[in-house]
Write a structure and sequence with these properties.
Elements (H helix, E strand, L loop, with lengths): L2 H14 L1 H19 L17 H4 L6 H7 L2 H21 L1 H12 L3 H12 L6 H11 L6 H8 L13 H29 L3 H9 L4 H26 L6 H7 L5 H4 L2 H11 L3 H29 L6
Length: 309
């Protein structure tokens, strides 16, 4: 008897929000079609899949693909490269949009602020194909503008090919990642800053607090929940590197440094036709990503009382 009022209240709220439900329906259908239905294909990581036999009739192999995976030195190398590149992006790339949003918030001239915002947003809408092609042009050892500047200042030698050096590969990966995404990622922080009560800043000014004091005691504490949530999501993404960037930036001289899990999964799964083995790599990535995000969420909840769930 007690469950009836609960059911009625739920159905009543659902009916009251029916228009909002209709608005969210396309997003829900998109997620079901492209995120949940394809999960059925995960079973081929436990099979010796061939397109002619299909998902159901391909022979089961159990954990054979995973045993081979963990004994594969190339997989170990790609896993190490993935964490190295992802951690470097997290250390240098995660604070970048926070710093940019705080700096933009402190700009007094609104027109200059809008110009800077537009210039920093623009690279996000440029494809990685164009970005990498531009890098090859600017860093060409003979005709590249940036290469000539670095040579004239003595930073690199005249015969240094930066796009073909494993030593500069990580630096270029992190730099281009920041350059491309810093403006777009700063939007959420700017929105959080816009929600801060202006009276807090006014009271701090009356008390004699300088610009840095206001940032440290008002802006950053107000951004803390947003920073923590995005940091948890970023930690969960440590195992998933940017496939487009890695695949396009690799060449014959940097392929060892650029061989991350996503690229290795593509090469083994689609290029060589080992679909089950490539799916096993993808499933391993998903499980590790979930574990990392859970650990980050649990640690954040214990330390800062902020968490995703």
């Amino acid at each position: 008897m007690s469950s009836l009022p609960v059911k009625r209240s739920v159905s009543k709220r659902f009916w009251q929000q029916r228009y909002l439900m209709l608005l969210t329906l396309p997003a829900v259908l998109w997620m079901i079609i492209f995120n949940y239905i394809p999960m059925y294909g995960v079973i081929i990581s436990f099979k010796e899949y061939t397109p002619f036999q299909g998902f159901l009739h391909s022979p089961w192999t159990g954990l054979a693909n995973f045993r081979e995976l963990f004994n594969d030195p190339t997989f170990t190398e790609s896993l190490a490269n993935t964490f190295k590149i992802s951690i470097a992006k997290l250390v240098f790339g995660f604070p970048a949009p926070i710093i940019l949003s705080i700096l933009l918030n402190e700009v007094v001239f609104k027109r200059f602020k809008r110009i800077v915002q537009s210039l920093t947003y623009l690279p996000y809408f440029v494809s990685w194909v164009l970005v990498v092609g531009l890098m090859y042009t600017l860093l060409d050892p003979e005709t590249g503008v940036i290469s000539k500047m670095l040579v004239s200042t003595g930073i690199i030698g005249s015969d240094t090919m930066m796009m073909g050096s494993p030593h500069t590969f990580l630096t270029l990966v992190v730099f281009t990642e920041i350059w491309k995404n810093i403006g777009w990622n700063s939007i959420i922080y700017l929105a959080a800053i816009a929600g801060i009560d202006p009276q807090l800043y006014e009271a701090a000014i009356v008390d004699g607090a300088g610009r840095f004091r206001r940032i440290w005691h008002i802006t950053l504490p107000s951004l803390k929940p947003t920073i923590i949530i995005l940091l948890i999501l970023s930690v969960g993404g440590l195992i998933n590197s940017n496939f487009d960037q890695m695949y396009l930036m690799q060449n014959s001289m940097t392929q060892d440094a650029a061989n991350v899990l996503s690229v290795y999964s593509y090469k083994t799964g689609l290029v060589t036709g080992r679909f089950s083995y490539g799916t096993a790599i993808g499933l391993f990535q998903s499980i590790v990503a979930f574990v990392l995000m859970y650990i980050a969420n649990y640690s954040s909840r214990k330390i800062t009382k902020e968490s995703l769930f």
